[in-house]
Amino acid sequence: MSMRLFLKYCVVIALSTLVVSGLYAQGVDSTGPTMTGFVDMHAHPRGDLAYGTELFYGCPYGDISVALGNCKADHSKNLLRAKLVEQTEGQNSKTWKDGKVGYPDFVTWPSWCSILHLQMWVDWIERAHKGGLNVMVALAVSSHCIASAAKTTGPQDDEQVMLNCIQGIKDLVAHSTFMEIALTPQDVRRIVANGKLAVILGSEMDNIGNFYSPADHYKATFNPNPTNEQIQAELDKLWDLGLRYIFPVHLNNTVFGGSAIFIPTLNVANKFVTGSEFVPEQISTKESGIAFHLENPMIGLNPIAKMFMPLLLPKDINPGRKGNYSFWDTIPGFGHRNSLGLTDRGRFAVKYMMKKGFLIDIDHMSEKMANEVLDMATESDYPVNSGHNFLRGDAGNEAGRTLKQYAQIKKVGGMVGLGHGNNASDFVYHYHKVAQIMGYSHVAIGIDAGGFSPLPQRDTSIMVVYDSTFTRCTTGNRTWDINIDGMAHYGLLPDYVHSWSLAGMTSQEKNVFMSSAEHFTQMWEKCEMRKRNMGK
């Protein structure tokens, strides 16, 4: 080959590589998915290290007779916590009772409705992986307000809990033979190609950097008014820890912006952290789909909770105390949304997150904040995600996504993770709608296991058939059947995915879902490409 032909060949190859990498970075699949498997965009495998470490029971690895043994020592340590656990665990199923003892018989837990017992044992994660799970976003999470109310020994402050959770996820991964932490999209491709589960570290903390001041005056270092330099230093620290996926806002207003309001009790946690209530504003239900009204948290407080509340929370935070919370006006045809949008410090933080290459999730942001962040993302052509959510209905709240928001996520090459739904039929119903909106691409799931959220119930309208090629999950003396138990734990995720075809998911939709690992990686590759231009 002549030197001229050789140079021409090199130029052609280089240009072709740039074109292909550019297409992938924009979320455009030019040759079809190269990586199979799906993504769980929202998991909390170390919930046991959150909420003061004594409210959420269990450990995902170790001696199973100890890790998943008897929860009595934690849940019944004192009368106040026992009552709090009883009230919390009873909210999703009135018939479920905590039998305390887990392994080896697992008589009462794990259960789809039990949100305070571990559902992500390492063997169950491995079964999910063997069933097609190739990428998992593993998030640190907690609530200082809940940890304080449960009278836990701690830690309770968000910064230390986050550090413990991130290290705990690393320890879990190191204990396994089938997981590896991914720090780059190239890592994801390599890990999955080697037959392993790629784990991405993330934070869904209420207040990163301890940028708040709690009402219980917990002994830790807090900074409710950080400078931009301090925000940047905190984000640099998170990046250096290996954290790549981030929620700027969770369940309360932060220095970055407003939180979506969708249940009255969030007002209690918001006041505990910020010293103030949410300030809602009226918005037309017809135009926005928001019908939610922020009620005084005193309304609906049962007599037992009202009796114990003065012992659980500071006097000025107690929702059972008259005058602590407002009664907001309601107008027919109008709903409430948070009046707080993106703050100046929030705008700086999000811009810097893009500059670093963080994978940003807009879930839990107030509608106003989410729209402002999406506008920033559109202007910079930077992918952002909505990892555990649904399309907003006609009588929804501001936490749900709008058609316009999904369209913007699609435009910038972001990912959508649908919430798991109440059961298979419910999930497929939502998947039909959102997959179409997203152009049958970039749609995954956000299970939220370990995140204070119940898992899917059994679907009585369908029947999953187990046979020699698809067997039931067994641990200790217990065997689970999704037709009876629902998705009792993370190990039944393959059973849940299997049930969707029976509930009406089309082969096209199933292919989209089973390509979500590739689409997620394409999204991340685009973030890596776009971050290079963010400082210009």
Describe the overall structure.
The chain has 536 residues and is of the alpha/beta class. The chain has a single domain (38-531), classed as Metal-dependent hydrolases (TIM Barrel). The chain is built from 20 helices and 13 strands. It has helices at residues 3-25, 64-67, 72-75, 79-89, 122-130, 144-149, 158-175, 185-193, 228-240, 266-274, 285-288, 303-312, 344-356, 367-380, 403-412, 424-437, 482-485, 493-502, 507-513, 516-531, and strands at 38-43, 133-140, 179-181, 197-203, 243-246, 280-284, 334-338, 359-360, 386-389, 416-419, 443-446, 473-475, 478-480. Strands 1, 2, 3, 4, 5 and 8 form a six-stranded parallel sheet that branches. Helix 16 (424-437) links the parallel strand 10 and strand 11. Helix 1 (3-25) crosses helix 20 (516-531), helix 9 (228-240) packs parallel to helix 13 and helix 16 (424-437) packs across helix 18. The two termini are 42 Å apart. The model is unreliable at 1-32 (pLDDT under 50).
Task: Draw up the topology in text.
Blueprint: H1 3-25, E1 38-43, H2 64-67, H3 72-75, H4 79-89, H5 122-130, E2 133-140, H6 144-149, H7 158-175, E3 179-181, H8 185-193, E4 197-203, H9 228-240, E5 243-246, H10 266-274, E6 280-284, H11 285-288, H12 303-312, E7 334-338, H13 344-356, E8 359-360, H14 367-380, E9 386-389, H15 403-412, E10 416-419, H16 424-437, E11 443-446, E12 473-475, E13 478-480, H17 482-485, H18 493-502, H19 507-513, H20 516-531
Parallel strand pairs: 1-2, 2-4, 3-4, 4-5, 5-8, 9-10, 10-11
Antiparallel strand pairs: 6-7, 12-13
Helix pairs in contact: 1-20, 4-12, 8-20, 9-13, 14-15, 16-18
